[in-house]
Amino acid sequence: MFREEMQAMSRIGKKEITEDMLINSPTSWCRAYLKTHSKCDIIKNNMCETFNSWILAARHKSIITMLEDIRHQLMNRHVDMIKFAETWISDVTPMARTILEDNKEYSNRCRVLWNGVNGFEIEDEVYTFVVHLDKKYCDCRSWMLRGISCPHAICTYYYLNEDPDQHVEHW
């Protein structure tokens, strides 16, 4: 699948695009190689850039003063996040809720085949994915990377008359 996508990209654009991408090993930028224990599928360094801009004023102070300023900013941010979390209407965060709802909608296109135990085979247009509910595993890896049920897992929960909302990871 990786090679097919790289070939498709080289057909769409110039061949240099894929050559430039392959200068760095795909293990450093391709989701197929990401570890699944962190439940984060973000590859970009936007978080570091955001944090650096957030502490910009403190960065030019002496080390102790800088660390104190950062600590105070983090404490204030923590309180703000607690207040924000108190406004939620469920245990699932608003961002995770959006992803989950999109996945629920997409799951309507999938077809479920059950092996009689905990294994399922999901037909998703031209691709087929294996889902194991007990292991929280799906071949698409989206569920394992994010901790939010992928469309294939959602199909299986609907098949078993279970609520997919109850199966979002609690980090």
From TrEMBL:
Keywords: Metal-binding, Zinc, Zinc-finger. GO terms for molecular function: zinc ion binding. PROSITE patterns: ZF_SWIM. Residues 127-161 form the SWIM-type domain. InterPro entries: Znf_SWIM. PANTHER family: POLYPROTEIN, PUTATIVE-RELATED (PTHR31973), SWIM-TYPE DOMAIN-CONTAINING PROTEIN (PTHR31973:SF197). This is SWIM-type domain-containing protein. The lineage of its organism: Eukaryota, Viridiplantae, Streptophyta, Embryophyta, Tracheophyta.
